[in-house]
Transcriptional regulator
Amino acid sequence: MNSRVTNPESYIFSAIILIGKDNFTSNEVAKILIERFSLPKNYLKAKAFAYNQIQSLVRKGLLNKVRKTGVYQYLYSVTSEFNIATECVELIEATPKSSCQLVSSATNHEHRNVNIQIKSLIEKYS
């Protein structure tokens, strides 16, 4: 199976714009690519894809890269050249959050309820 992305800059630009924060990490971009743009990759491959594409944008001067204190991670921010470059890139429409994610959040809520019940049983019988 070929999992190459035909227009990688479109995905990266769209994800960065969707994040809408001054500073972001490559992990945040990867998460957006998977959740909102249905990138045909697993999470680890999406992280590598996002990192490599972001490094390319840093080399072109479209993003700034700053080391995040205390963690081995970098924060990226857009430059004025990024805003100009977005006019030349065809952006991708983000899909609404999928029902799979809604089920996942419901499952997390159910796990919390089970944990509370277990704690109350432990307290009751201790």
